Amino acid sequence: MQPKSKVELYAAIRRDARAGLSIRAIQRKHNVGFRTVEKALASVWPEPRKPLPPRPSRLDPFKPLIDQMP
Questions:
Q1: Which of the four pLDDT bands, split at 50, 70 and 90, describes residue 59?
Q2: Residue among 28, 30, 25, 24 nearest 12 (CA)
Q3: Is the whole model's pTM more than 0.85, yes or no?
Q4: What is the separation of C-alpha 23 from the centre of its chain, rounded to a whole number of angstroms?
Q5: CB within 8 Å of 41: residues ≥ 6 apart
Q6: What DSSP string describes 28-54?
Q7: How many CB atoms lie within 10 A of CB 13?
C-alpha cells in the first residue's frame, strides 16, 4: 500500500531503512529518488512547500477601464 502523504512516505522510508533495506531498494520500493530518501533519513518532517509567487490577473490590463465605467 502506497503512503498517502509525504509525512507517511518519510515514515515508511525510515521504517524500511531500520529494517535493513538499502537506499537503492527503498528507492525502487517507494518510487522516489536518492535525494528524497536522504531527506527522509535526515529529517522526520518534510520541508514545507515553497509559496508560489502571485500571478497577475488576466483583467489587470483592463482594470483602469473597468474602474472608469459608471
A1: very high
A2: 30
A3: no
A4: 20
A5: 13, 14, 17
A6: HHHT--HHHHHHHHH-SSPPPPPPPPP
A7: 24
